[in-house]
Amino acid sequence: MAKICVLEDEQAYEAELSQCVGVTAYHHWFFLSALADALHCDFKAFAVDSGAERLGVVPLFFQRRGPISTVNYIPFGYIGPAVRGEALRAGRLGELLRGIRPVLWRHRTVAAQWWLSPGLKLDPAALTTQGFSVITWDNYVIPGTKSVDDFLKSLPTSRRQSINRTLRRAQDHGMAVRQATADEIVQWLPGQIDAISERQGASPVYPSGLVRSMAGRLASHPRLLWRAVEDADGAVQGIVGSIIGDDRLWGWLIAGPPVDGVSVQTLCYWDSITWALDRGLAVDLGGAPTDGIEKFKVSLRPETETMILAYQYHPHAAYKLAAALRHRGPVQAGLDRLRLLLEG
After folding, report:
1. pLDDT category, 334, cuts 50, 70, 90?
2. Which of 22, 29, 240, 340 is deepest in the core (most CB within 10 A)?
């Protein structure tokens, strides 16, 4: 029988996380606690043992839906179970998730989402046979093994010329990329995230106030890299926020209004790539919500990983009640989360 251990503080949680694989920059306590505050949900973390062996760590975000709750229905990917290496190699991820069920039962949880890191290298088919509903998509990563010059030379001619053209136009317009200030991150960025949805004619992908709340908590955090594109007058035209991991720069937020003659997003991506490669870090570009973004990212010749979002219902009939309270079904909820993840 599984034994569940509550990880009550950052020190205990991070100590367990350091023993696991499939850990992303989003797994760390500083980010999870900021996210929980912004979403007004209850964040708890647990370690699960089987016999004398520890299987891994499970962070959970509980959201109340009247008398029941849902778990991990949050607008961020990558935040799923982190597994000990020996447990992963033995195929015990399912056992880890089954081991946490008593916690879900105590919270009357009828639906859970498990975002599974590409670092776990899981076979989606193995999850479906264990009763999970699964969505997969491609995640793009630029390895940190090349210099900036070698990376640029390795690109297709058309993409290399496009990047050089963007850099020249930015220079001609007096535009530059620099460290963003805390005021810019907190005051300028949230409105621009809202403006993305307005320009696309879609409902906001982030809950109202989430970006402002998290930006306020994380604007000065040492694990966050905030870079701003400014014009010749010093006005901000774009901001990109990334999380600095142990071996990868994880792109998180990117926003800015259209600028005639210069692609601000290309400047932001290129700045992230050069910053990371200069430090021997890989660059996580995320996924691709549109054909245009997919074409751009694929043209950078990244490595492709498989991201997995797995659903679990307890029981399915009760989940229908939760879906009715949320005014959406499981597929739409998954697509909403997926859309946000891929926004960058």
Report:
1. very low
2. 240
User: Distance between CA 228 and CA 75 in Å, rounded?
Assistant: 24
Cβ proximity of 60 and 103 under 8 Å: yes
Name the CATH topology of 2-138+305-341: Aminopeptidase (3.40.630)
Q: Cα–Cα distance between 238 and 183 in angstroms, integer?
A: 14
pLDDT given for residue 89 in this prediction:
93
Residues 6 or more apart whose Cβ sits within 8 Å of residue 267: 166, 167, 170, 175, 177, 229, 238
CB-CB neighbours of 82 under 10 Å: 26
Provide the pairing of β-strand 53-65 with 42-50. Answer: antiparallel
Indicate the domain borders of the chain. Answer: 2-138+305-341, 145-280
pLDDT of amino acid 195: 80
Structure tokens at 234: 């010093």
Alpha helices for 18-123 (secondary structure H): 29-39, 85-89, 93-99, 101-106
Which residues in 188-247 belong to E strands, given as ranges?
224-230, 236-244
Q: Hey, which residues does 254 pair with through a beta bridge? A: 240
Fold of 145-280: Aminopeptidase (3.40.630)
Rounded Cα distance between 302 and 254, Å, is 19
For the chain, the average pLDDT equals 87
Cα Dmax for the chain: 66
Which DSSP string corresponds to 12-36? HHHHHHTTEES--GGGSHHHHHHHH
How many residues in total does the chain contain?
A: 344
